[in-house]
Amino acid sequence: MRGLKDKIAAVTGAASGIGQAAAKRLAEEGCKVAVLDWNGDGAQATADQIRKADGEALALKVDVSSEDQVEAAFRTIVEKFGRLDILVSNAGIFSGARDNKVDALPKAVWDEIVGVNLTGMYLSCKHGVAAIKATAGKGAVVLTGSPTGMSGCTPANIAYGSSKGGVHGLSRVMAVDHAPEGIRVNVVVPGFTLTPIVRELVADPKVYEWQVQNIPLKRGAEPEEIAGAVAFLASDDASYMTGSFMFVDGGLTAI
After folding, report:
1. What is the rounded CA–CA span in Å between residue 17 and residue 120?
2. What is the pTM of this model?
3. Domain spans, the chain
């Protein structure tokens, strides 16, 4: 893809799943990648995989809900690489066991999920965009959204759905605010994706078949398929896209 070689990218939530796949794909495209995750060992493992493939990576243990940690991480990225061109704000958590309907949801669970999924996005974007403006001057931001932020497709997960709806709103305002500065902001909206945790949940073939029955392609996405969309949105091939939502969902939104 055009315009990714030698760029500096930061990816949050990159220890596994979509974030890990995105970090590795950006490295394959020639980016130097900062791998951010609360799981320090997982972040290091992703960075090691990038290095084994002859890429350059920096692993940073970061809780995105902590502004001090986020600010320090982006300061370290700039000190290490000299600038920042691309931010992939992907970190998020989901808990089908603890999330609930609004009248039964403990505030502590709301605070935890919204704190990572929405406040964490805001903090990553706050300090990531500041780093881009102060160094590269212009660049690209890609946020990971969710169909749950647009429809009630996950009943009794009020905190998660609300947090993702907030991410979508955040992206739209950011796109308008930063377009004059040459910073593009777009959202990738993954459908049913076979991350390690999801694979465990659908290990039973009957459960898997139930999950994909309404997806036109009749299967889940591999994280690498979502990563391809992330890389595209970060690249110069998407230079006229900002404030956009790219659905990578096997055709589900076409129904």
Report:
1. 18
2. 0.96
3. 8-193+224-248
Q: Which residue has the tokens 């974030």?
A: 19
Query: Which active-site residues does the annotation give?
Result: 160
Token readout for 243 is: 């404030």
- pLDDT tens, residue by residue, 176-201: 999 999 999 999 999 999 998 889 88
CATH code, residues 8-193+224-248: 3.40.50.720
DSSP 192: S
* Residue 74 near residue 10, CB atoms below 8 Å: yes
pLDDT at 104: 97
DSSP strand E in 66-223: where?
Answer: 86-89, 139-144, 183-190
Give the separation between CA 145 and CA 253, rounded to whole angstroms. Answer: 14
> For residue 130, with 0-12 CB atoms within 10 Å meaning exposed, 13-18 middle and 19 or more buried, which class applies?
middle
Rounded Cα distance between 132 and 127, Å, is: 9
Give SS3 for 26. Answer: helix
Closest by CA position to 91, among listed 67, 68, 113: 113
